[in-house]
Amino acid sequence: MAVCPQCGAPTGPVVAAAPAGTPPVIAPATTGLPENVAGLLCYLLGWLTGIIFLLIDKRPFVRFHAAQSIVVFGTLTILRIVITYGLVEGMFGMHSLGLLGLWSMLSLLIGLLTLILWILLMVTAFQGKRFEVPIAAPFAKSLAGSSKI
Fold this sequence. Notes:
Elements: E1 2-3, E2 10-11, H1 35-44, H2 47-56, H3 60-94, H4 97-126, H5 136-144
């Protein structure tokens, strides 16, 4: 460490402590995005952006959100496809209005669940928090590469 030749005081960079109550500064990744923004973007286009961020970002926070996006929105997409094609096929084969009502209700519920989870997960990721979807989180942790994230 260098010292001042006149007074003997240490010279060098002065590091000031952050005032109490200020949010932590999150260092940017190699992509140039802060962790919280990258976490939000993992959910932007559902499982598609989840795959992209899982491949390009190595930070545990971002990898968890990317993996959770893949598991949650991938499952909901597959479920919606199965319900749409499975029940529509059954509906037109039987000409039953009961199946049409069931299909409409299930489709509406899955769409509403998708919208709520999409908003909730993006907001919590942007806040720097990790909201774990109860059934999907264990699969997301293993997909992200560590069960201790």
